[in-house]
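Revision sheet: structure tokens.
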Amino acid sequence: MRIARHVLVLLVAACASLGARAQSYPAQPIRLVIPFAAGTSTEVALRLVVDRLGAVLKQPILIDNRPGAGSTLGTDQVAKAAPDGYTLLATYNSSIAPGPLMYRKIPYDPIKDFQHIVLLGLYPQYVIVKADSPVRSIQEFIAQVRAKPGTVNYASAGVGTSGFLAAEMLKQNLNLSMTHVPYKGPAPALTDLLGGRLEMMLTASAGELVKAGKVRVLAVTSDKRMPTYPDVPTLDEIAPGVQAVSWVGISAPAQTPRAVTARLEKELLDILNAPDMQARLSDPVLGLSLSVRGSERFLEFIQGQMRVWAPVIRAGNIQVD
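Predicted:
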């Protein structure tokens, strides 16, 4: 009885300690690691959200860009950070799902090493051609590829990116043969597309070029048409099942106290569901399609992405060093 009572006292003390920690959290600035170089559209969206979160928590949230190794470098640093709620991670498809399925070795487990707190939204890819291209629809593009197998060049921002995976799924679905030209990011690929050295590109960064009349959008990789381009079909309409999006969320190291992540989840969901914030995040310039989900649904989303892409990656023998 004495031992049982002692254990009960310890448990009560531990619970009280966790509660006190959550009530006093945060007592210092919080660091949000973004595993990409500064200046991306996702960073702009994240700054809008975490600036408000900092105001709510009464502590600044500092952006720490840690690019490298296809976003896995910064992600690994957070996986190994102190699980105290003061280091958070901007999580992406490239580092969590389906990215790790393509790496021969990865230093962390995308599920076990994190608490995934909230999903902010999705970034669909756009199938674009130069504005003066004779190809005026996705059906005409597919017909061109079939008429000249292996000769049509298309670009993505690199092997393993959402644009690359969307094209791979389209190729497998419709048994198409076209030549992939990988680039280190969207900017050089767009330059070559506009220079006439490529026939097509998949990118999330099309908005300004469309507005300037330099490119034409043939299709979008989301599950439904985008309000910005209501006349543009989804790839899913042409080839059922072909969907591919980038995504961004916020996560923490796995052993972060649940009381802390629960508070972060509550505050973030309140912020993301506020009408004024939704209006700002829906600005077409950001390219973000809001898809706000709490921790449970976020984890289900990640696991679903793993299931969708595993067979495509195996069939395409896709590996990233």
